Amino acid sequence: MPEKESKNSDNSTVANAPTNYKICEIIEAEIKTVNNLKIKEVSGKGKKEDVKIDIIVNYCKGCEICVAFCPEGVLAMNKEIAEVVDISKCTKCNICEYLCPDFSISIE
After folding, report:
1. Do the domain assignments include residue 8?
2. What is the CATH number of the domain that holds 79?
3. What are residue 52's phi and psi, to 5 degrees?
4. Cα–Cα dist 17/36, whole Å
5. Is residue 21 in some structural domain?
6. N or C: which end of the chain has fewer CB within 10 A?
7. How far is it, in rounded angstroms, from Cα 55 to Cα 74?
């Protein structure tokens, strides 16, 4: 992929993202605390419709079941906690929610 280059103020060269690089469009991503539970909430446009994925960080034990069984690759592990990496691929199949042994993921 061709990359563009630009110059810093000190005249050093900086490589920018490739011209055809696409960043996942996330409408809303926030971390909130409800009843002493830390919740990562990501909202955006999925493959079929708008989707909101909540991950209760306090409940996630890092078993990776949600990541392994997600057919679209929406989730990944960040250290020992699951996180949303590309909400635009989500089809709201709810497999991650159904298989989570700790009830840490919910899909709306």
Report:
1. no
2. 3.30.70.20
3. -130, 125
4. 39
5. no
6. N
7. 13
Domain enclosing residue 61, as ranges: 26-107
Show the 3-state SS of the chain. CCEEEEECCCCCEEEEEECCCCCCCCCEEEEEEECCEEEEEEEEECCCCEEEEEEECCCCCCCCHHHHHCCCCCEEEECCEEEECCHHHCCCCCHHHHHCCCCCEEEC
CB atoms closer than 10 angstroms to residue 18? 11
Burial class (CB in 10 A: 0-12, 13-18, 19+), 76: middle
Domain count, the chain: 1
- Which pTM was predicted? 0.71
- 12's tokens: 């050093």
pLDDT at 97 over 60: yes
Task: Give the tens place of pLDDT for each residue, 10-60.
Answer: 555 554 544 443 445 544 577 888 888 999 999 999 998 999 999 999 999
